[in-house]
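User: Can you recover a sequence for this backbone? Please restate the input before giving your answer.

Assistant: Of course. Working from this structure:
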């Protein structure tokens, strides 16, 4: 059973979507090196020739998966950015939207985390074309609300690091169990902590 139940595909899906869904799940679970094309094709219910026809080689498939993930993330944050207000409430709404998106799509959060841990570092165009513009826009918005001495760029990255750390690493309870985003009480407690972190980093 997949660790990422939110990524699913059925035989009724178009082949490309089935391939991207299967590749997303396996790249998230195993990383680029640990997910051979043969395994992705098998998970999608297709043969390797069909996978190659739709997406090209494994590197092309990885790029397609990461670009789709980046686009979904951008769409999820679009409304919060468009309605942003330069105050603590506006910053909190943006941080909440990011947290909620990552909690609802753990497979996408895992893709980025694996990439940050040295996955395919030679594919730098992805960050330049997809990640940096979105992060840059969020930094611009945060700067509008921040105090004069605050470092908005590092504040935004601190939110990203903390969200991924919580969702993947969790918090140990008194019995040693890891509480993550799937635990609603832990998620809301983390949300409150995240708000306080942002307030402090941006001098709100």
């Amino acid at each position: 059973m997949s660790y990422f139940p939110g990524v699913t595909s059925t035989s009724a899906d178009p082949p490309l979507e089935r391939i991207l869904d299967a590749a997303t799940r396996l790249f998230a679970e195993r990383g680029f090196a640990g997910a051979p094309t043969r395994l992705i094709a098998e998970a999608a219910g297709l043969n390797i020739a069909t996978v190659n026809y739709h997406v090209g080689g494994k590197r092309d498939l990885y790029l397609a998966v990461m670009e789709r993930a980046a686009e979904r993330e951008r769409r999820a944050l679009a409304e919060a950015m468009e309605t942003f207000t330069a105050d603590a409430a506006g910053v909190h709404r943006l941080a909440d939207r990011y947290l909620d998106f990552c909690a609802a799509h753990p497979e996408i959060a895992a893709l980025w985390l694996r990439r940050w841990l040295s996955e395919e570092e030679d594919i730098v165009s992805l960050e330049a074309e997809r990640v940096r513009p979105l992060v840059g826009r969020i930094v611009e918005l945060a700067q509008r609300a921040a105090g004069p001495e605050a470092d908005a760029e590092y504040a935004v990255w601190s939110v990203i690091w903390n969200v991924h750390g919580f969702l993947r690493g969790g918090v140990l309870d008194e019995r040693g169990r890891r509480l993550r985003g799937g635990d609603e009480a832990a998620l809301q407690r983390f949300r409150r902590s995240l708000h306080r972190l942002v307030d402090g980093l941006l001098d709100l």
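That completes the design. DSSP finds nine helices and two strands in the chain.
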